[in-house]
Amino acid sequence: MGGSEMKYINEAFDNNWVAPLGSNVDGLEKEIENYLGGNLHTAALSSGTAALHLALLQCGVMRGDEVICQSMTFSASANPIVYCGAVPVFVDSEKDTWNMCPETLQLAIEERIKKGKKPKAIIVVHLYGMPAKMEEILKVANEYEIPVIEDAAEALGSRYKNRACGTFGRFGVLSFNGNKIITTSGGGALVCHTKEDKDKAVFLSTQARDDAPHYQHSEIGYNYRMSNICAGIGRGQMEVLGDRVKTRRKIHDFYAELFRTVDGVEVFSAPAREYFSNHWLSAITIDPDIAQKTREDLRLALLEDNIESRPLWKPMHLQPVFADAPYYGGEIGQSVFNKGLCLPSGSNLTEYDKQRIAKSIIQFFKH
Ligand SMILES: *Cc1c(COP(=O)(O)O)cnc(C)c1O
Q1: Beta bridge partners of 174
Q2: How much is the pTM?
Q3: Which of 30, 184, 224, 298 has the lowest tally of Cβ within 10 angstroms?
Q4: Which residue out of 99, 177, 179, 225 has the highest number of ligand 1 atoms within 8 Å of its CB and is therefore the one to mutate?
Q5: In 296-353, which ranges are E strands?
Q6: What is the CA(77)–ligand 1 centre distance, in A?
Q7: Is ligand 1 within 6 A of the CB of residue 72?
Q8: Which atom of ligand 1 is nearest to the CA of 186?
Q9: pLDDT bracket for residue 219 (50, 70, 90)
């Protein structure tokens, strides 16, 4: 926590606004809009997953439709497609950012159209905070007039060509889950570009009540709005977001320096200056042919020293639950998954922790 969270929570109690509405919800939405910049309208919701679900519904995704989704991601990017009764079509990543490959995206769209179904939406992810190749992706999406939903759950504070991630697509999705760069304990937001889109998201997230004195419903609604208490935590967290981004980027620099002289290990880094990552998690890939060791060897060695690390997200087209879903691309996501490891990256990592990690890693590569 940053320090002011309790102040905002106490305000909510003092005003007795312990509900999914109130001044903290409004305040948090404004603060997110100011932080991201531009003319935005944001709906604070109960989770990033809820935001993705509403984005799909507002793109008109219905039963039997197809939605293109980056394969290399966390399952929450793809699950809401199935909530809509639609079918995910997975697309491989490119090597530079580990995000959706624009050329494979184009191929996938053309193939699906040939098969008789034009995809209803495209979900692109900024994995580990690294911006995707948005210019190329938007060019393809615009050519076929398919709306883009930007899953920026891991990328709050990241920028591409000096514009905030989450503001490129028709909808942007943020997450404030406990593991993200800032948290409301659980929460998310849908970033919209029109007041109509935001109002519709709020309507759907509060059980879709029609304008009537009694309870009248013409649409299926959801209970997806953020509570005023969680929003209070979020307002405190927004005050320290800038610091958090700086801290995570410093952790990335620490690993870049640590592995500079280790053959066969690459620290996942921005391919060019226009990709500004919040470095939510620092990740590496280990080439076993050069390093003579695998990422699993390193994971187990760190575990011996009571240091937790984790493999990368396993691509969705390799997940049992999505075994039947169409997939376009090669083995880039799979290869990155096989070689990749996420290293300790928390904002609360101390100098002592870093020394301990460095010692363990240096020891491991010595043998
Ligand atoms: C965390 C995450 C989500 C889901 O956000 P929740 O707030 O946990 O529902 C979606 N996509 C990605 C890429 C994530 O990392």
Answers
A1: 189
A2: 0.97
A3: 30
A4: 177
A5: 310-311, 327-328, 340-343
A6: 7
A7: no
A8: 7
A9: very high
Regarding the beta carbon of 73 and ligand 1, being less than 6 Å apart is answered: yes
State what percent of residues in the chain have pLDDT above 90: 96
Nearest protein CA to atom 14 of ligand 1, as residue: 153
Structure tokens at 84: 């809509």
Closest by Cα among 142, 108, 105 to 124: 105
Question: By alpha-carbon position, which residue is closest to atom 11 of ligand 1?
Answer: 77
Residue tagged 């293109």 (tokens): 68
Q: What is the pLDDT of residues 316-362, one digit of tens each?
A: 999 999 999 999 999 999 999 999 999 999 999 999 999 999 999 99
* Beta strand spans in 186-230 (E): 188-192
Mutation test of ligand 1: which of 69, 70, 71, 74 has the most ligand atoms closer than 8 Å to its C-beta?
Answer: 74
Q: Is the CB of 177 under 6 A from ligand 1?
A: yes
In this predicted structure, the answer to whether residue 233 has a pLDDT above a threshold of 90 is: yes
Using the structure block, give the residue that is written with the tokens 């009571």: 306
User: How would you write 138-189 as a 3-class SS string?
Assistant: HHHHHHCCCCEEEECCCCCCCEECCEECCCCCCEEEEECCCCCCCCCCCCEE
pLDDT tens digit sequence for 164-211: 999 999 999 999 999 999 999 999 999 999 999 999 999 999 999 999
